[in-house]
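WARN retry 2 of 3 for item q-0093 after timeout on previous attempt; input resubmitted unchanged.
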Amino acid sequence: MLRQLVLNKIVDEIQLTVVPGLVFVFLILCRKENHQKYNNISGGLIYPLAYLVDVLVCGHFSNFYPYPFIDVNALGPGR
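OK item q-0093 returned
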C-alpha cells in the first residue's frame, strides 16, 4: 500500500512539474522561425478550458474537486 502511494506521488510530480517544463523547453528549442504565432494560442487553450468547465460542473454536482486550487467548497465561489 505504501509503495503504491509513493509511486502515485512520483507520477503526480512528473506529470504536473516535469512534463510542462519539457513542453516549454520543446517550444523554445524545436520551433522554426515564425512557426509559432500568437493566434495559435487560442486553439491550444480549448481543451484546458473545456476540462476546467467539466471539472467545475461535475464538482458542483458531486462535491468532489480533484485539485485543491479549484475546490469551490474549500475556497468559496468568489475566489
